[in-house]
Amino acid sequence: MNPCERGLSPITAIVLAILGVSAVSLGAFGAHALRHMLSPVQAGIWHTAVQYHFCWVGVITPFGGVAFIIGWIALGIALVRQRG
Fold this sequence. Notes:
Elements: H1 10-33, H2 40-53, H3 62-83
Helix pairs in contact: 1-2, 1-3
């Protein structure tokens, strides 16, 4: 059963997919691209911000992180196609 059949509006599902993509992407960006640019305090702030954005943070391998991002994108595409 897709999210829209569970009472979630299509626009809400799309927004959730976009928020999921951004949360995973921002977490990966902070962990990899900003690792050597931020002080430990700044890195802690970034980490907390990502946690607030995406309530659950887990240990994900680089392959798993990419697969997670692709999954959120696929959800968004599927919902847009289903709506149209």
